[in-house]
Every structure is written in structure tokens, then in C-alpha cells.
Description:
Blueprint: E1 2-15, E2 26-41, E3 49-54, E4 59-64, H1 65-69, H2 81-95, H3 104-121, E5 131-137, H4 147-168, H5 176-194, H6 200-207, E6 210-213, E7 220-222, E8 227-233, H7 240-253, H8 255-280, H9 285-308, H10 314-325, E9 330-333, E10 340-344, H11 351-363, E11 367-373, E12 379-385
Parallel strand pairs: 3-5
Antiparallel strand pairs: 1-2, 1-12, 2-5, 2-6, 3-4, 6-7, 8-10, 8-11, 9-10
Helix pairs in contact: 2-3, 3-4, 3-5, 4-5, 4-6, 5-6, 7-8, 8-9
Amino acid sequence: MEILEVSAPGKIILHGEHSVMYGKTALAVSLGVRSSVVLRQQEPTGCPVVHVIFPNIDLDELLPLKPIAEIFPGEPVRVDHEDYINKINNLLCRIRPNFEELKDTQKNSLRALLYALIGIFGTTNLDITDFTIQLSTDLTVGAGTGSSASFATCLCGVFVKLVQLKTTGEILDFSEDEKKLVSGWAFNCERIMHGAPSGIDNTTCTFGALVSFKKGQVPVLRPSPELRVLLVDSGVTRETSRLTAAVAELRQCYSSAVGHIMEAMDNVALTAEQLLQKLVQPESEEEVHAAYKHLHELWEMNHCLLASLGVSHPALETIRAIAHEHGLACKLTGAGGGGNAIVLVPPHTQETTVTSLKTTLVSRGYKVADTIVGGPGVIINYKTQL
């Protein structure tokens, strides 16, 4: 029995929340919190099935493989996305009773699974037999940390590697060309989840490190140092569409003032990008200290600019105040209005300070992940043949 496991990071926005909607620069980075998909090929049976186990969304399904394989193209094709989705919807309604009664996250996950399976594996003319596919993730669904893009990247990555295993008998690390393939298919899976994604999430989850982005342009990959952060879950759910609409309304009422805020946020993002490039290969310890000091100041500015747009929240301000008491910079990330805050932990920070901060935050009811940003993208965690 062959076992493949592929993992991919989540993502967070460092700078450019909301201003990116108005043509300004946004910076996204890969998050040390990851998802993984494990594919286990089983012994062939007379009626082959795929066993789908996605516990984070309460999904445990057995789907027959024969009708799925019947719509495999069998050769590489340029697919029409909407036509492709319609075929998958019709198929799922046939093979999974009461499919339409599932939750949206469950339906979209099954759609994405078949989209990746048919689009990547189904164009190869390779035989497919019974297999189990299992997702695990430490990312919170719907919290602005790229959980759906991380999931999509893992799905597409594991099918790319399944093709490699069946054609060459071995598994290698992802090449740059394979990453481009994975990112492209993950983008299409993101279209299932979100309708009109920007491309920044699947790019960040696939390639890792730092991604610079402007609306309507292709995301640009940048090298990035690995920064230590505390990802703090405020426990407050937020509606991205409502927050986006509120900013748009504010801009309509105070176009000049909000325009200046957006320009300031763009300047913060561009300056932070330059500092992060310097930290990739710093020339001295003094340069590292200076860069982190400036990053601290930029995080403070960015949060206050976002707060002036009305997208902070009392819980986020509480988290930020606690971080300030410990001498560390903190900002909201994502749409705001709740969700997550991120605390920058420079390398010279005393561990007693970090421990005290984490203890205080947890005692106040917040979830804290001590992690990194700017790390690797999609990877093979292990390759086993039993």
C-alpha cells in the first residue's frame, strides 16, 4: 500500500488589508500553521471507492470510483470551468444521495476533490483503484488564514505526486514547474470556494515565503526571512463582506481622507517589503535590530490606519494592549472586526517575555499559536511504500 502525504501552509496578510481593494500593495506571507492531505492506495476491490475523511468539516463519505472515472478526459484538455463544475455537480447528485442537503463547506470540499482528481489524474490514462484521502489541518476554517487555499493546494499537490508515483515509481520534491501546476489547479478549486479569488492565497500556500500583490496584477513572489509571530485568535467571528462594504461607504463619504489613509497603507506595505528583503541576508546584527525596530513601527502604523477605517474590534484592541505591556508590536490581520491578531517577536526578545505574554493571553480566553511566517510552501512530508 502506497502512502502519500502533502502539506501546505496557511497564509496571513502582513500589510495591505482593505487598501488592496483600491489598487494598493498587499503583502501576504505563508504561515507556519499547516494543512496536510494523506492519500492511501488500498487493495483493489470489485467495486472501487474513494473514502473521503475530512474531520474538520465533519465529512466522512464513501464515493464510487467507477462513475467518477467515466468522466475522466483521458488526455490533457483545456477545461471550461463552469461546464466542468456542472458535470461534477450532476455527478455528485447521482452518486451521493441528498448531496444538496450537505453544508456549503462540505459540498464545496467534495466538488474541489473531484475537480482536482478529474483535472489532474483523470487526464493521464492511468488506472486508479480504491484509495482513502484524509485531510487534517491546524487552521481555523473561515478565520482569514487561507484554510481553503491550503486545503486546495494539498489536494492538487497529492494528485500531482500520485501521477508521478504511477508514471516513474518514485516521489521527488516539488519542482518549480509542478508548483506552478499545483497553484493553477488550486486557484480553480478556490473559485469553487470563493467565486472570484485574487490568486494571492493559492500562490502563497503553494510557493511559501512572501507574495506582493496589486489588484488586477499577477502576484509577485519575493524571498522572505522567517519571522516569529504569535497568531492570536480573538474568538470573534467576522463577516468580511460587511466590513468591506463599511469601508467602501466610509470612502464614499470621506473620499479625500480615506484616500490619504489608503496611500499611507500603501507606503507602509512598500517600506515593509524593502525591510523584509534586507532581512533575507542581513549584513550585521545591527542591521537586524534596526530592521525589526522599523517593522515594529510599521505594524503599529498599519493597525492604527486600519482602526481609523473602523475595522478593529474591542477584542483586538485588548490583545494589542496586552502585547504593548510586553513591549511587542501587534496588528490585526485580514478583514478585521474580530478574527486574528499577529504579534511580532523579534529574535532578541527574552523568552520569559514571550511566555508571560502567551500566559496572559490564554488566561483572557484567547487562543495563541507560536509560529513563523515566511516559511516553505507545499512540500512532501513523507513518502512511504508499504
